[in-house]
Amino acid sequence: MSRHTCYLCHRSIHVCEECDAVYHRPRLGRCEVAHCLRCGAELDRHTGKRLERLLPLTVGALILFVLANAFPIVTIELQGLSSDTTLIGAVLALARDGMSEVALLVTATTLLFPLIQMLVLFYLLLPSSRLERPPGFVFLLRMMQAARPWGMIEVFMLGILVALIKLSNMAEVIPGPALWSFGALTVLLTVVVSFNPRYIWHICEEKQSSRDEISEHSA
After folding, report:
1. Are both 154 and 103 inside the same structural domain?
2. Which secondary structure element, helix H or strand E, spans residue 128, and what is its range?
3. What is the domain extent for residue 152?
4. In 10 A of CB 175, how many CB atoms?
5. pTM reported for the whole predicted model
6. Same domain, 6 and 73
7. Is position 218 within any domain?
8. Do 152 and 158 contact (CB within 8 A), yes or no?
9. DSSP state string for 153-217
10. Structure confidence by residue, pLDDT tens digits, 151-203
């Protein structure tokens, strides 16, 4: 009984990530946000139906990610000759030209880490996953947090635009389907990645606390 009580008390406490101030976690109403009284940092917020809206956005981002890597980014036409390439083709070309480190960096920042974030978030946002804490829950949250700073699709998109502007003076540049997919993916990822994963943790804790209280009363 004492362990169960301590468990519930531990869940009702919130520690500020910025200044380590300790607070009792309040019950927030719709659209309410709790801030630290010491440093003003955000402690918690009521997510409302944001999780339900975030799931289709994540699915859309995954679809755009597949399209962006399956089709050519641009087609370059010069003196009757044309050439196009995909992101994976560009990575392979870098590796063949002796720039393996650059190829590895591009693969990690534009393919691997963004894909990890989207897949983990999709898995955690599934309704079945929110009913019960799924296997590897803590590890997946930590992995998503660790991968977040390394996803740089927006930097890659900016580099593509700069390269296209320079190439347009020498040859005819035709944007491919992947370029538009990358543009839309950049916008969607900005929305998806801005979501703080700790709110998924809080929701799982609240549901677990409710189940524990029901079990205690029924016992």
Report:
1. yes
2. helix 127-131
3. 49-210
4. 14
5. 0.72
6. no
7. no
8. no
9. HHHHHHHHHHHHHHHTTTSEEEE-HHHHHHHHHHHHHHHHHTS-THHHHHHHHHHHHHHHHHHHH
10. 888 888 888 888 888 888 888 888 888 989 998 999 888 888 777 676 676 66
